Write the structure tokens for this entry.
Amino acid sequence: MSYSIHKERQLLLISTFSALLFAMIGITLGSLIHSLVIIFDGVYSLVSLGLTLVSLAAVMYIRKEEVAKNIKRVKVIESSVILLKGIAITLMCVLSFISAIEAIMDGGREVNTGIALAFGVFSMIGCYTSYWVMKTQGRAVSSPLIEAEAKQWLMDTVISAAVFIGFMVAKLLLLTSHAHYAELADPVMVVLASIYFIIVPVKMIISSSKQLHHLSHNTFLGKYLHI
């Protein structure tokens, strides 16, 4: 096994375990303190975990000697995986947006801002570390799948930063005569995060779709996949 193939698998495994850790912590903590945005963060990590496992399976397949020789077939599989990532993240953002709007219409949610702030700091550090590892170590393999992983972790880092900033604002509001607005901070953060983060997966969908269209237009997709 070459160094680049070994490194690619190693990075995907690191991303898998990291996503599992943040998914468990985010969903559990978010449910305990009734925070939509922390649950959003955890669910995003869970979706990332599933997508990383798909990437890992794809890598194990396309790096087989008999498959790796067919460069165009490899590109089709890589583009298809990235397309799947984009669709899944877009769907998650849309569903989260709808849930947040419903919460705002109901008057918001009361959240333990102290615990939420601590989670924001922990998540920011952890997610940025995962992004840094994917970005820097991934340069040695030049893999589109690792680049997609780095984008996922960068998005998760910004979500965590939004959690921290949003709950910091909520904490300050509690000290003023506008304390009742603090309950809107949680769902409003989810709305903003959903709108912002849908941009990246939509770009992934457009880019991978163009790549697949280009490949199928030139030499017929079925020929590469032997179907």
